[in-house]
Amino acid sequence: MKIIFLGTGSGKTSRERFHTSLYFETPGFNLLIDAGDGAAKALMNSSLDFNSINGILFTHYHADHFTGIGALITQMKISGRKSELTLFTHKNLVEPLINLLYYVYMFPETLGFNLKIIGYRLAEKVNVADDFSFVARQNSHIYPKGDIEFYPESMFVSSSVLITVADQSIVYTSDVGGSDDLYLFDNIKPDIFITEAAHIEPGDLYRAFKDIKPGKMFVTHIEDEKLGELIEWYESLDESIREKIIICRDGLTENLG
Ligand SMILES: [Zn+2]
Ligand SMILES: [Zn+2]
After folding, report:
1. Which of 154, 156, 221, 257 is the most exposed place for a label (fewest CB within 10 A)?
2. 21 C-alpha to center of ligand 1: Å?
3. What does each of the 257 residues of the chain score in pLDDT, given as a tens digit?
4. How far does the centroid of ligand 2 lie from the alpha carbon of residue 254, in Å?
5. Fold for domain 2-255?
6. Is the pTM of this model over 0.70?
7. Where in the chain are the domains?
8. What are the C-alpha distances in Å from 161 to residues 30, 60, 99?
């Protein structure tokens, strides 16, 4: 299997990086995780066909993880896609997803392919395909801030995920609220730990690496303004640690055999 980091930017739009999306290429099923604004173009930049995607999993609905979906599904329709597409989102967010697709005129009846939407529950194992599953846990990234108590609490959901493909385990923190969120799956030692870098400090990344002991750690969701500090931190690490920590850039591909 392969992981391709299509978009490694943060919530701030950058000339250098696309907003978040990750592509998991596996023998039976290709899963896109998050479809940030510009995801369709990020796929093109990595020479990937829109229709190679079998499913899309959303961790939360900030624009840099979600709003690329309208344009991406439009491209699938325009290109005459026939194969089914499965969207995985938290069960509370199924309706907003359907609404977004309605309001960009992507009606299920006229797409030309079957659109399946699966609303996942937290802490429940969801089978994506044979030997390919994920479990989502709530992190503290999204919560009601300020004078907005009239919005339903149920919409404030953001997930970190543990993905299992055959015998490989991958933790993707997605966006977190603080360093505690890096430990939501601390009962396992993943082969790959993918963490964001916009809401935590390099020191927190280092502690998480030491505590969790992943095979490799990938740092993504990088703000242009923080890249210098991140590289300085990386260069200060021992060579044995540097071999296992990768500061991502768009298009980076990791082959997991
Ligand atoms: Zn983000
Ligand atoms: Zn976010």
Report:
1. 257
2. 10
3. 999 999 999 999 999 999 999 999 999 999 999 999 999 999 999 999 999 999 999 999 999 999 999 999 999 999 999 999 999 999 999 999 999 999 999 999 999 999 999 999 999 999 999 999 999 999 999 988 778 778 888 899 999 999 999 999 999 999 999 999 999 998 999 999 999 999 999 999 999 999 999 999 999 999 999 999 999 999 999 999 999 999 999 999 999 98
4. 24
5. Metallo-beta-lactamase; Chain A (3.60.15)
6. yes
7. 2-255
8. 16, 11, 25
Q: Which residues pair with 88 in a beta bridge?
A: 57, 118
Residues 2/22, Cβ–Cβ less than 8 Å: no
**Cα 160 to middle of ligand 2, angstroms:** 11
Q: Which residues, chain by chain, have CB under 5 Å from ion ligand 1?
A: 11, 64, 175
CA distance linking residue 184 with residue 120, whole number of Å:
17
DSSP assignment string, 114-139: -EEEEEE-TT-EEEEETTEEEEEEE-
